[in-house]
Design brief:
Neuraminidase, 5-stranded antiparallel β-sheet, SGL, Calcium-dependent phosphotriesterase
């Protein structure tokens, strides 16, 4: 496929609007709303609710619109994954559903590879090359992804055929390799998002039923659940259930807490049921210690592997649903929502919102170098420069 080069990437200040939360919630002022498509030239607005946000964004946050197909194509190329490869200064992003240009019955998903060229002054992106790639064999309908070894671990939602879907490792310049593709012979539903533990290398992922509801997957064989895969033993186990549509997953720094989003509000056909969850849940990660001798009470070893406990509501999205989720090294929590990016501290207090124009919100995003974030907003890809000390925990260390 063809490559697009963009050398015209202006940098603009990020507009900051300080809002009195008490006045907003008692009706004294009108709550800020998400700009609609006709207001797309206005750029991103940062809604600040707390002084804590200032340490995150710094004194002069900036924004850049890296790519936009608005006005030339309705295709939502910038949707999910959003994996940044620091060693090559590249982004990998999966599209939303694209209608096939062939006679195929089902829609397709493409992967975008975006190579960045930094400004010689160290202030932003000077140019980029955007290539649209067809997913390699095995990675059917890719969605989420995460850095893994020298490449990317992709979530393959699967096709209508049995025996498809799961997690695939795509090394750089090599064919993809299956990592885990079934739950003891039962196909996953449509694997959505994934994170890798720094502590033991285990892989944690979510598996909602969106593929079935969107018409490209068979009847579900499993509930909507979250799983842990042990790369050393091959054990795959369910670690959390009870979701309507589990979606994003992220560890807090130190990995004593894991966050899992439930996007049950959104149905597979694009409709909404506002009685359903648009919620981030927090779980404590318990790591049982091994018995040191036969004399240790058996109760001290309920499992040699981590498990989750103390599920509680961490936050409810202001607009839309919390999709992709990440933490910074300070423990603040970021989620792609219907208005853009919403940010909470580790206690669940909403600090602010990066309100992104276009009306589609942000499904996923990632941290890059020295305080930058890349935001996937369907037809637009944005870069936001925060305080240089703000770093994503995923790539830290």
């Amino acid at each position: 496929m063809s490559t697009v080069t963009n050398k015209d990437i202006p940098i603009a200040p990020l507009k900051v609007q300080v809002v009195d939360r008490l006045a907003e919630n008692n009706g004294s002022i009108k709550p800020p709303t998400t700009p609609q498509p006709q207001e797309s030239d206005d750029g991103i607005t940062l809604i600040q609710y707390s002084d804590e946000l200032e340490a995150i964004v710094g004194p002069s946050p900036k924004q850049s619109l890296l790519l936009s197909t608005a006005g030339s194509s309705n295709n939502p190329f910038f949707h999910e994954a959003c994996v940044y490869i620091p060693t090559h200064d590249e982004l990998y992003i999966t599209s939303n559903l694209l209608q096939s240009t062939t006679t195929a019955t089902y829609p397709t998903i493409l992967i975008s590879r975006i190579r960045l060229t930094r400004s010689s002054t160290g202030n932003g992106i000077a140019a980029l090359e955007w290539a649209k790639l067809r997913p390699p064999h095995g990675i059917d309908m890719p969605n989420g992804g995460v850095n893994y070894k020298d490449g990317i671990l992709f979530c393959a939602q699967g096709s209508p055929s049995a025996g498809t879907g799961g997690l695939y490792y795509m090394p750089r310049n090599a064919p993809p390799k299956p990592v885990v593709t079934t739950f003891y012979g039962r196909d996953f539903n449509s694997v959505n998002d994934v994170v890798v533990s720094k502590r033991d290398g285990s892989i944690w992922f979510t598996d909602p039923c969106y593929g079935y509801e969107q018409g490209f997957r068979r009847n579900p064989e499993l509930p909507c659940q979250a799983y842990r895969f042990d790369v050393n033993t091959g054990e795959v186990r369910c670690v959390a259930d009870g979701f309507q549509m589990c979606n994003g997953i992220a560890f807090a720094p130190g990995e004593d807490v894991v966050y899992i989003t439930d996007t049950g509000v959104i149905k597979g056909d694009g409709g909404f049921d506002l009685r359903r969850p648009a919620t981030i849940y927090a779980f404590d990660v318990v790591r049982p210690h091994l018995r040191s001798s036969i004399q240790d009470p058996p109760s001290t070893l309920s499992s040699a592997q981590p498990y989750l406990t103390k599920k509680r509501v961490f936050a409810f999205a202001v607009q839309g649903v919390p999709d992709g989720i990440k933490c910074d090294t300070r423990g603040n929590v970021y989620a792609g929502c219907g208005d853009g990016i919403e940010v909470w501290n580790s206690d669940g207090c909403l600090l602010g919102r990066f309100v992104v124009p276009g009306g589609g919100g942000v499904a996923n995003f990632c941290f890059g170098k020295e305080g930058e974030m890349f935001l996937c907003a369907e037809q637009r890809l944005w870069r936001v420069q925060l305080a240089r000390e703000t770093r994503g925990d995923l790539l830290d260390g």
